[in-house]
From TrEMBL:
EC number: 2.7.4.3
Matching PANTHER family: NUCLEOTIDE KINASE
InterPro entries: Adenylat/UMP-CMP_kin, Adenylat_kinase_CS, P-loop_NTPase, UMP_CMP_kinase
Entry-linked Gene3D superfamilies: P-loop containing nucleotide triphosphate hydrolases
Catalytic function, reaction form: UMP + ATP = UDP + ADP
Entry's Gene Ontology molecular function annotations: kinase activity
Keyword terms, alphabetized: ATP-binding, Cytoplasm, Kinase, Nucleotide-binding, Nucleus, Pyrimidine biosynthesis, Transferase
Protein name: adenylate kinase
C-alpha cells in the first residue's frame, strides 16, 4: 500500500513553529529534507509533491504510438498480474466528461492531437496513485514528452521500474485507430496524422532516454493480441520478483536478456 507518511505528522508543523523547527532538525539529522516528508501545499499550494512511500511502488510506463495496442495489452497485464491500470488519456477524458475547470481546454488539445500541460496530467496521476491501495501500477500513455517525464520525477519523486514500448508500423496504427469504433474524438485521419507527428517528435526522445537507462523493453506490436502478450509481455513481468506469485500462469516463460535494451 502506498500511503502518506506525512499525515500523522502534519499537525505538528502547523501548530507550533518551534516543534516544526525541531522536526526539521530531526529530519535534517536523519538525512531527510522537510519537503520530502510533507506535501508542499503547506509550503506552496502550486507545488505539491508526493511524500515518500512506506514501500516504493512498482511502476511500469507503457509507451507506443497511437493505436499500437497499449490499452489492449494493459488489460491483459491487469488480468494476469493484477497491476492497477492508469491510462493518462482516460484520466484526461474523464476531466472532459466531468466538465471540470480544465475540461474544455483538454478537449481542444485532444481534438487537435496536442499534449496537455504536464502539470495537469501529472496531478491527475498523482491523485490516483495516492488514493490507491495498490503498490503496482501500469501508467499507460505517459510520459509522452520529456516535459511529462521531468514533471513526473519532480512531483511524484519516483522512477519507473519498467518501460514497455509497443513498436508498431505507422500504417498499422492508422488502420487500428480508424477501425477502433469507440467514439473517440481523436480517432479520425486528420487528428491521427498530427498524433503521429507529435509521437515521433516528442515521444521518441523519452523512449531513447529509457533505452539509455537500460529500462526499456521494445515489443514488436505486430501479431495477435494473445501472441504479443504470451510471447513478449508475459516473460517481462515473469522475470520480476514482485510478480512471482503470478508465475504459475505460464511457468515456461523466460525472458531473454537481450530483450532489455540499453545503448551501453
Ligand atoms: N495486436 C493487435 N492486432 C490487431 N488489432 C489490435 C491489436 N491490439 C490492439 N488492437 C486494436 O487496435 C485498436 C487500438 O488499440 P488500443 O486502444 O489498445 O491502442 P492504444 O495504443 O491504447 O492507442 P491510443 O494511444 O490511441 O489510446 C483497438 O481497436 C484494438 O482492439
Ligand atoms: N501523457 C498524455 C497522454 C495523453 N494526452 C492527450 O490525450 C490524447 C489521447 O491519449 P491516449 O493515450 O488515450 O491515446 C493524446 O493524443 C493527447 O492529446 C496527453 O496530452 N498527455
Ligand atoms: Mg489507449
Amino acid at each position: 500500500m502506498w500511503r502518506r507518511v506525512a499525515s500523522s505528522l502534519s499537525p505538528m508543523i502547523s501548530s507550533s513553529s518551534s516543534s516544526s523547527r525541531s522536526l526539521a532538525l530531526n529530519q535534517a539529522a536523519s538525512g531527510l529534507k522537510l519537503g520530502e516528508f510533507f506535501s508542499t501545499h503547506m509550503i506552496n499550494p502550486e507545488e505539491r509533491v508526493s511524500p515518500p512511500k512506506e514501500k516504493a511502488p512498482f511502476i511500469t510506463f507503457v509507451l507506443g504510438g497511437p493505436g499500437s495496442g497499449k490499452g489492449t495489452q494493459c488489460e491483459k497485464i491487469v488480468e494476469t498480474f493484477g497491476l492497477q491500470h492508469l491510462s493518462a488519456g482516460d484520466l484526461l477524458r474523464r476531466e472532459i466528461a466531468m466538465n471540470t475547470k480544465n475540461g474544455a481546454t483538454i478537449l481542444n488539445l485532444i481534438k487537435d492531437g496536442k499534449i496537455v500541460p504536464s502539470e495537469v496530467t501529472v496531478k491527475l496521476i498523482q491523485k490516483e496513485l495516492e488514493s490507491s491501495d495498490s503498490s503496482k501500477f501500469l501508467i499507460d500513455g505517459f510520459p509522452r514528452t520529456e516535459e511529462n517525464r521531468v514533471a513526473f520525477e519532480r512531483i511524484i519523486r519516483a522512477d519507473p521500474d519498467v518501460v514497455l514500448f509497443f513498436d508498431c508500423p505507422e500504417e498499422e496504427m492508422v488502420t487500428r485507430v480508424l477501425n477502433r469504433n469507440q467514439g473517440r474524438i481523436d480517432d479520425n485521419i486528420t487528428t491521427m496524422k498530427k498524433r503521429l507527428k507529435i509521437f515521433n517528435a516528442l515521444n521518441r526522445p523519452v523512449i531513447d532516454y529509457y533505452k539509455n537507462k537500460g529500462k526499456l523493453y521494445t515489443i514488436n506490436a505486430i501479431g495477435t493480441v494473445d501472441d504479443i502478450f504470451q510471447q513478449h509481455v508475459l516473460p517481462i513481468f515473469n522475470s520480476f520478483e514482485q510478480f512471482k506469485e503470478s508465475r504459475h500462469v505460464n511457468p515456461k516463460s523466460t525472458i531473454s536478456s537481450s530483450l532489455v535494451e540499453s545503448s551501453s
